[in-house]
Design a protein that fits this description.
single chain, mainly alpha
Amino acid sequence: MVLAIIAGFVALVLVVLLAAYVINVYNQLVNLDNRADQAKQNIDVVLKQRQDELTKLIDAAKEVMDHERELLTELTEAREQAERAATPSEEAQADEQIRQAMSSFRARVEDYPELRSQQNMMQFQERISALENQIADRREVYNEAVTQYNTRIEQFPYVIFARQFGYQERELFEATAAEKADVDVGEAFA
């Protein structure tokens, strides 16, 4: 009788420990998943700020550069493509288009001294450059969070529980081939 009570107690303790272990693994997976989500949302916050700043820049450019419709179209299309981007690869393509449009904008600013004298335009440019740096930093944090998450769901014993709980690998942000290409500075000034 005592032996049955001890065996029952040991079995109960083992069941409680196993349940606690499964709960711990699940909570770790939830934590990593939420960190990756938060990192993605942090990118979206800065992308929204960039969109707002681009809107202001476009409005200011309209006032100063009525004759530069092509530039405004490039900036507007780049902004709209960025708004439509849903995946990291689409965001990378949109970023490339925005960078190209901003490069054209900066070249035009150099060509028109009266535009360069507009302090608002320069402040907008500096703000967008700062936002671009923040986006790059936050994408790095996102990739770190996703890498940690993806690694964890592939490790034993997490791989077993991750599949059971429906956790799947996430996509990393990757720069496009154009963003990785060497920059021809001479051509940029031509």
